[in-house]
């Protein structure tokens, strides 16, 4: 077991065991409900043993949000923590502090909550604790289970956790157990239409509240999906092992936090730091070696079939081509160049032949040594790429050497990949025969964690594609900087595309979990080839706005160099926009319709704003109150042209400037499938008094 997991178990065991020693002899009887309110008394959680079962409920300003919902864990090989539990004791504490992100959407994060710890006994022995942390914008809870002297190892067969919603809310969701993992367009339906869904799962109530169910700190545990069990109740459904068991535990353990974010406006879901705050602090110490920033690379050209990952006449990862990208990056201020297809293993059916990948052997036409030197002399770094094709045993057997090899070539970030067509990963079982595991079960959660830990030893950041969903672990392991985990830009190259409203959905669903490497910035939207062969439901201004709307500390300019140089005025925004922020604010939006987000550069006083819409044209009024008071700014505006639309004239763009202040309201016109991107630069003069 890895270091982080051991520390969590030891700390949890000492806390729970110490608080339960005196509890022997308590009767298993109905107890009054225990209550904890958020700091400003917005949310209230109640916990009670009702009808012999452990249950909780949630209300907001006295109005129920969750009805009484079950809690508990069932084991297949030990006494279950479900029926027959009694409350031994409880305690509360208040926390209000700030912590600093080494990189992120905002530099400083406030962590303010009331904690309720409820300790339970079963048959006169310590059973477990359930810990609730109640914030004004949501809450999280987790199970903390001490070691069992009679059972060193225990197997969880079922988690009884429920979210019993009070009505059949409108819901935005994606199904679980599907072959392409999370890479589907979001469904909009009543809650009752869900069968099994992944999280984050977003809802809107008839009264106008916005809700998001997710989990935080997913370590050594399977992903929680949500199963509809009737009556507006969603139950935790854990991705199983191949033998049907859900979780294999050893000694004391903690579960991930089960979370619900609650907001009066859709933008409140985006502004919440609940998921991050429920994770443990940075365990790596000094991470000044991490380098957030923008990159280019040998990637899009393969998706549009101009070159190949495989070796041969059209091999993209050849020395001359990569030098071209390095020159481009150095000229325009990009920090990195991603190179995919550089290593042996891509020839033939690479998805089926994952054991052929070698992570320290380049193809003959890729001179890694020379390219690393060339990039360093230009002030640029190569971004590594490890496509595993789900060959976990093959990758882990090379992992240490592969990371050391990358470090020796001055690589500071690696994009990993786990492409599988059926959502199943092959491993070697105890009998020496292949066994297939779900991509989001405990086996793979352990693997993803191991990769992040080994990479950290070599001062390497990880950008995971085909990942386990984000649950805020970037706070604890800041080198796990970003990940995919949704339908990204590549689907616009070779499928039916993502549709004009996809980004306005992502902002309120997938993006609530953490950074996403969407790979924005496609400029070739209106050429005959682009219109005939691709499905890019976007205007040029919208592609620029993605750099603000879709947060990632590693942000790609995904198109070909020649397409950027053909549109230098629009390209200037990508050159200017940072990837690391001092503050972020969601200004306005509605799920699936539009979203407006403003962010301040961490290294200057500049602000940036991105607005994107769906297939409908839209006129927005955006107050600029986020700007520094008393300062005038030059607003550099990249807007849709008057006749722009995603399907007929996607490249029409109007670039203009005007002076503004925090007192002003900007009118933004978004074309169908369009957007707007703005840079605000402080001017050296004060605002004239009104």
Structure description:
The protein has 690 residues and is α+β, with helices and mostly antiparallel strands. Among the domains are: 3-100 and 113-277, Beta-galactosidase, Chain A, domain 5, CATH 2.70.98; 490-515 and 537-550 and 569-690, TIM Barrel (Alpha-Beta Barrel). It is 19% helix and 36% strand. The chain contains 14 helices and 38 strands. Strands 6, 7, 8, 9, 12, 13, 15, 16, 20 and 21 form a ten-stranded antiparallel sheet that branches. Helix 5 runs parallel beside helix 6 (368-377), helix 7 runs parallel beside helix 8 (442-457) and helix 12 packs parallel to helix 14. Mean pLDDT is 94; it is low at 1-29.
What's the short version?
The chain is an alpha+beta fold. The protein is 19% helix and 36% strand.
Quantity of strands, as a count: 38
Query: What percentage of the residues does DSSP assign to strands (E)?
Result: 35-45%
What do we call the CATH topology of the domain at 3-100 and 113-277? Answer: Beta-galactosidase, Chain A, domain 5
Quote the distance from N terminus to C terminus: 64 Å
Low-confidence stretches: 1-29
Level-1 CATH class name of the domain at 3-100 and 113-277: Mainly Beta
The CATH architecture of the domain at 3-100 and 113-277: Distorted Sandwich
- Average of pLDDT: 94
How many helices in DSSP terms? Answer: 14
Primary descriptors:
690 residues, alpha+beta, TIM Barrel, ten-stranded antiparallel beta sheet, seven-stranded parallel beta sheet, disordered N terminus
